[in-house]
Amino acid sequence: MTALTLALSKGRILEESLPMLARIGLDPAGDIDRLLRVPSRTPGVSLLIIRPTDVPTYVEYGAADLGIVGKDVLMEHGSTGLYEPLDLDIAKCRLSVAAQKDAPKRDPRRRLRVATKYPEITRRHFADKGEQVEIIKLYGSMELAPLVGLADVIVDLVATGGTLRANGLIETEVICQVSSRLVVNKASLKTKHAEIAALLDQIRRAGQTLKAA
Ligand SMILES: Nc1ncnc2c1ncn2[C@@H]1O[C@H](COP(=O)(O)OP(=O)(O)OP(=O)(O)O)[C@@H](O)[C@H]1O
Ligand SMILES: O=P(O)(O)OC[C@H]1O[C@H](OP(=O)(O)OP(=O)(O)O)[C@H](O)[C@@H]1O
């Protein structure tokens, strides 16, 4: 069998992918807490366990044939070189704008300051509304920024809304819905077409079975 490499987003998406991967024999056959590359239980298919934001890059350059990654990461990356055939319907959340419930009034002559891990999506979102904003790139704990006066609003992921509520923030706008996607390197799709088509079919069916259970 032709060898295939699948890049997995470590953390939440990996956790949520494991039941589906186990169903089709692609779960890791090794210590995923230590190893960055592990064989799957299917001979010839290996898994890369990497940071979510790196998955599009690995797949785009062909270091992995396939990847599992959030739509948020794909939109921020602007992955033109990737084929995105499947919505896996896991790690579901939304990307939203949020502000302090009792936000202090802002001087209207000053641009809105937005703290986010997603500068590209944020820039596009406000530009589409004809609004130029000042974007402050952060790498985590966005909810803190409005509380300490670093930003007026944030653009971040929301699922239950619990983190926003706990920090006295409210969702003011939903930018888009987010779930995890299977992405495929376009060259691999041609050179390993039969293997990838079979895998897509298995994943599709495993997803349906899991939903029905
Ligand atoms: N609260 C949530 N509920 C459901 N899905 C989520 C939630 N938060 C994030 N996600 C999805 O899971 C992905 C990975 O999130 P996770 O928190 O595991 O990684 P991270 O710590 O943000 O990654 P990195 O190490 O690259 O900063 C996100 O890109 C998004 O698609
Ligand atoms: O609406 P909720 O259900 O509260 O989920 C939203 C939170 O989940 C994500 O963070 P995560 O828990 O992944 O922590 P991290 O950003 O530190 O990785 C996101 O960045 C929010 O902070």
Key words describing this protein structure:
single chain, 213 residues, alpha/beta, D-Maltodextrin-Binding Protein, domain 2, 2 domains, six-stranded mixed beta sheet, five-stranded mixed beta sheet, 30% strand, elongated, binds adenosine-5'-triphosphate, binds 1-O-pyrophosphono-5-O-phosphono-alpha-D-ribofuranose, ATP phosphoribosyltransferase
Query: Order of helices and strands, N to C?
Result: EHEEHEHEEEHEHEHEEHH
Q: Report the bound ligands by name, code or SMILES.
A: adenosine-5'-triphosphate, 1-O-pyrophosphono-5-O-phosphono-alpha-D-ribofuranose
The CATH homologous superfamily name of the largest domain equals Periplasmic binding protein-like II
How many helix segments?
A: 8
Radius of gyration computed on alpha carbons: 19 Å
CATH-defined architecture of the largest domain = 3-Layer(aba) Sandwich
Major beta sheet, specifics?
A: 6 strands, mixed
Work out the number of β strands.
Answer: 11
Distance between the termini: 31 Å
Q: What does this entry look like structurally?
A:
By secondary structure, the protein is an alpha/beta fold. The chain folds into 2 domains: 4-91 and 180-212, Periplasmic binding protein-like II (D-Maltodextrin-Binding Protein, domain 2); 93-178, Periplasmic binding protein-like II (D-Maltodextrin-Binding Protein, domain 2), CATH 3.40.190. The chain is 33% helix and 30% strand. It has helices spanning 12-23, 55-60, 71-77, 119-128, 144-147, 162-166, 186-191, 193-212, and strands at residues 4-9, 37-39, 45-50, 66-70, 82-87, 93-100, 113-116, 134-137, 153-158, 169-178, 180-185. The mean pLDDT is 95. Heteromultimer composed of HisG and HisZ subunits. It is found in: Cytoplasm. This is ATP phosphoribosyltransferase.
